[in-house]
Amino acid sequence: MFFIPAFFTWPILIVFVSLVRYIFDFNFSGYWFETLICVILLVALVILYKYYIWHSNALIITNQRVVENKQHGFFSKTVTELLFRDIREISYDKNGMNASIYDYGDLKMRTAADNEIIIEKISKPDEIVELINRVRQGNKISNDDGDLIDVQ
């Protein structure tokens, strides 16, 4: 879902420049090819930037804490760490048709100090809440291979 705006709105710029060229017979003062290459490079850079931001974000769940690494830009990053013993309440919200169709939502964790930590737009928030609750209770969980892992 993070890439949908980048993949659908930015390429519209390429279509728009092409329409201006052919419908209005405007050749950009003889620099039509150079203008098209610049627009394509701009769109590619925006999509690569979005990919970098998406790839740098992470939600890490260990047997003791939840860590969120959130990359805001090339030089801006926020790391939020919350110990399981500090979590008093955990819930999630799925708002809208896209969130229901693509199964993403916001994870909300309330601490003992009555602070609310919100982790936005995570995939399968219901499974994440279930996993965190099982880890908090000290139950065993299984990894992708089906092996049981003791999280106590």
Textual characterization of the structure:
The protein has helices at residues 4-23, 32-56, 97-102, 125-136; strands at 58-61, 65-71, 77-83, 87-93, 104-111, 116-123, 140-142, 148-150. With 152 residues, the chain is α+β, with helices and mostly antiparallel strands. It has two domains: 4-55, no CATH class; 57-139, Roll (PH-domain like), CATH 2.30.29.30. The protein has a three-stranded antiparallel β-sheet. The chain is elongated, with a radius of gyration of 22 Å. The model is unreliable at 146-152 (pLDDT under 50).
Helix/strand order, N-terminal first: HHEEEEHEEHEE
The gyration radius over C-alpha positions equals: 22 Å
C-alpha termini separation: 35 Å
* Low-pLDDT residue intervals, each spanning 5 or more residues: 146-152
Q: Order of strands side by side in the largest beta sheet?
A: 1-2-3
Shape: elongated
Structure summary, number of beta strands: 8
**CATH superfamily membership of the largest domain:** Pleckstrin-homology domain (PH domain)/Phosphotyrosine-binding domain (PTB)
Proper CATH architecture of the largest domain: Roll
Main structural class: alpha+beta
What is the arithmetic mean of pLDDT?
83
Major sheet, described briefly? 3 strands, antiparallel
CATH topology-level name of the largest domain:
PH-domain like
CATH class of the largest domain: Mainly Beta
Can you tell me the number of structural domains? 2
Give the amount of beta strand, in percent. Answer: 25-35%
Tell me roughly what share of residues is in helical segments.
40-55%
Number of helices: 4
